[in-house]
Amino acid sequence: MKLESDSILLSSQKIGNRIAQNRFVAQPMEGNDAVGGKVSDRAIKRYAKLAEGKWGVIVIEALAVADDALARKNQMVINSENLPGLKALVQAMKAVDPNVLVLFQVTHSGRKSGRDFSRPTALYKAESWEHLLTTEEIDEIQRLFIEAALLSEAAGADGVDFKMCHGYLGCEMLRPGNQRSDKWGGSFENRTRFLAESIPQIKTRLTNKDFIIGSRISYWEGIKGGCGTASASDAVEDLCEMDLVISLMADLGMDYVNVSAGIPGVTSEITRPTATSKWFYLHQFRYARRAKALVGDRMMVFGSAYSVLQEEGVREAESNIRLGYADFAGWGRQTLSDPLFPKRLALGDEVDYCKLCSGCSKLMIKQEEVGCIIYPSLN
């Protein structure tokens, strides 16, 4: 298919004080190809290829704030030692497309850290093989997140994304199930402290006042006591508290919320609908619409789950944005099957649509370099 020249997907949109050249967002997709936490040549080639696709926003895959916070053994780590490689990554992308907005997603993997290559850390209710984080250790993780945001600016990125989704540490913080007895758990105030304290500190220390700050969240995780439930003992969807989280983000002056759901590996099909669970995409659209109704023009809203719809996802993205249900449309798996997706749609060239085979996910589970097994773009 070819997008009409007046397609809303091709229109520019303000985000914070910056302008995205279009409404296409490349969601963070991990490549598991770092070398000792450092940016690899393969990663630079991957992202340069993605930049060639003329996306409005590219969110760089989850960068761990410490080398003991990895979910993948070859995950990239954001620290001062690795700053030269991160600079090279951004420079390579901007050389291909100076107009693309590049955001760094920063994370701590918490209990999703693997046993074989890092110390698994639990925020609450630790298993026998897990280390329960102390108050002081969470204080240090908060410091590392703030430092990671400042390093993102130093690397030349246009913004930062706090990963508060998909079962990682930031997401665990927000859960009603987080009933720690210290300042990091229990009350809503304590469970949102990580954001409420970190964002103002980042803003005051940034040199570039146009630096974009946002977060990807799981509106509903689908587990007992998870995000999107009413209490630690409830699994039924109740979005009232997550509404308050999103309103807090807007009050903090954050520029966008990237709406997702579920936990990969636990409630995977909520996060990433498959051909047999396709209709879960309707939940994702509903969550984005709800977020947009809450924040209006105070924050931009990125929607998710378009890859499962393949070509139809393009039409649905246009419809959702025209209806005011979201400001941007995000594609994840589709970025692996065809990094040039937006450019090809604009030109009317043939698109390699994701086949929903889960091959990329299987590579990640096996701790191998991640890519599309049907359309390997780096070959």
Largest sheet: 8 strands, parallel, barrel
Share of helix among residues?
Answer: 25-40%
Which structural class do the helices and strands define?
alpha/beta
How far apart the termini lie comes to 25 Å
> Helix count?
13
Overall mean pLDDT: 96
Tell me the overall shape.
globular
Radius of gyration: 19 Å
The largest beta-sheet arranges its strands as 3-4-5-8-9-10-11-12
Percent of residues in beta strands? 5-15%
Secondary-structure element pattern, one letter each = EEEHEHEEEHEHHHEHEHHEHEHHH
Q: Uncertain regions: pLDDT < 50 for 5+ in a row? A: none
Record field, number of beta strands: 12
Label this structure with key terms.
379 residues, two-stranded antiparallel ribbon, 8-stranded parallel beta barrel, single chain, 13 helices, alpha/beta, globular
Summarize the structure.
By secondary structure, the chain is an alpha/beta fold.
